[in-house]
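S1.2 Input.
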Amino acid sequence: MSGAGVTVERIDGAVFWRVRLATPRANILDEAKVGELRAIQARAGRDRRLKAILLEAEGEHFSFGASVEEHLPGRFESMIAAFHSLVREVVTGDVVWLAAVHGQCLGGALELVSICHRVFASPDSRFGQPEIALGVFPPVASVVLAERVGRGAAEGLCLGGESVSGKEAARMGLVDELAEDPSEAALGWARRCLLPRSAAVLRLAVRALRTPLARRVVEDLPVVERLYLEELMSTRDAVEGLEAFLEKRPPSWEDC
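S1.3 Output.
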């Protein structure tokens, strides 16, 4: 199955789904891909045999993140709403998500990876939240990233805008396991730890473990979303940063 630059392969008797971002080299998370991922999550919720979804990507890099073009005035409201709906649906759902990362994993892609239950990455991977350099901030990471890496590391990533290596990501808890082939490592873990288990019990365990995070996303993400939509995007600097990135020039900040 495939659609909107995302492919789905059912493996191991369809108890696992391999979901691939399939628009290399950048695998940009545009609104079409986000919509397809939401549809996959909805179908997964109805398939009671399913034990895990493995999220991976074709090409040299996992993903450079969300579409910058879709964050410009006139388009950002729709994109933000769709992406935040995907995050809520994954976090409040009952399906195990695994991520297998290689190359660059930036911006919205890191936000998506950070809500997966286990993250596997290659030694050459790099993780970052570079939004601050574009004059914006990452709403989802602002709410959920500290859950994985702690407050200090989350603030360092979001305020500093620098990327970290796979090794450093593992040290801070963003990555659970480093492997030369993260996809095979993820499937190995799933086959060893999830395959023998009851699918029904796994789903209840996911809901139980995610209760505090789900509450935080449901209650806090709308607050941060309003800050982004109503205050950030009314500033000149937010639009200037995004346009400068697309025009490949240094930004000229009004408030610098």
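S1.4 Remarks. The first strand starts at residue 2 and ends at 3.
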